[in-house]
Specification:
229 residues; mainly beta; two-stranded antiparallel ribbon
């Protein structure tokens, strides 16, 4: 798990459980042996330190920001150019429940202050029921430094099944990235993770051709969450 999959999950959980009249502010921090986003390493297979702050308030609204180091100088298959230093995500949305069905609607922008030519922004929608989650992310703005920038209409589809057994959290997931300007850049990825008490272990694989981008990757990490207000 990485990036928005951690930060947004924390924000949505807070939004769903918070009182309609009481706002909450939480923070998260973690260290990982790799930063995998949508099946692709974002740190050239090096370690990452990550952290964020989330606000949630009634009824179901949330916002937050999240930061990680990144390194696109190697053959990571990201479509980005050069070493961009660090990434800062800013997001906000609305989440709620109707019986056993949960939903999440929002916008997230991925900012690279050292190299703003690779910034991009997405709208997203997700639904979940009985441990199953389906989500769609649609690119609405993409800067000139990203490979295949003729159009902004990239689409990422994601599905996962999450469950807990004997106090251990399990997740099995798959995603497909469709690049509007270059169908040759489309790819699918899949993986699984387990976690307990802040520790996590994940394995990820994609079908990107060329170089080492499609290697099987294993990631271990430790993260903590805490209340700020």
């Amino acid at each position: 798990m990485t990036k928005s999959s951690i930060a947004l999950a924390a924000a949505v959980a807070a939004a769903l459980t918070s009182s309609a009249a009481v706002a909450e502010v939480t923070a998260n921090a973690g260290i990982y042996s790799n930063y995998i986003w949508r099946g692709v390493t974002q740190t050239n297979d090096q370690a990452a330190g990550q952290g964020g702050i989330d606000w949630s308030g009634g009824p179901g609204f949330y916002a937050g920001t999240w930061v990680s180091n990144v390194d696109f100088s190697g053959d990571d298959g990201s479509g980005f150019a050069g070493d961009t230093g660090y990434e800062m995500d800013v997001y906000g949305g609305w989440a709620g429940e109707a019986g056993s069905f949960g939903w999440d609607l929002g916008v997230i922008t991925y900012q690279y202050p050292v190299s703003p030519s690779v910034n991009f922004t997405e709208l997203y929608a997700a639904g979940s029921i009985a441990g199953f989650t389906a989500a769609a992310y649609f690119t609405v703005d993409k800067a000139s430094g990203i490979t295949s920038t003729a159009g902004d209409d990239d689409l990422y589809l994601y599905g996962a099944y999450d469950f807990t057994a004997k106090d251990i959290d399990y997740s099995i997931y798959i995603g497909n990235y469709s690049i509007d300007a270059d169908s040759n850049a489309d790819y699918t990825h899949y993986g699984a993770s387990i976690g307990k008490g802040g520790f996590s272990f994940a394995v990820d694989k994609n079908d990107i051709e060329g170089g080492s981008a499609d290697n099987v990757r294993f990631t271990v990490g430790y993260a903590v969450d805490f209340d700020l207000m």
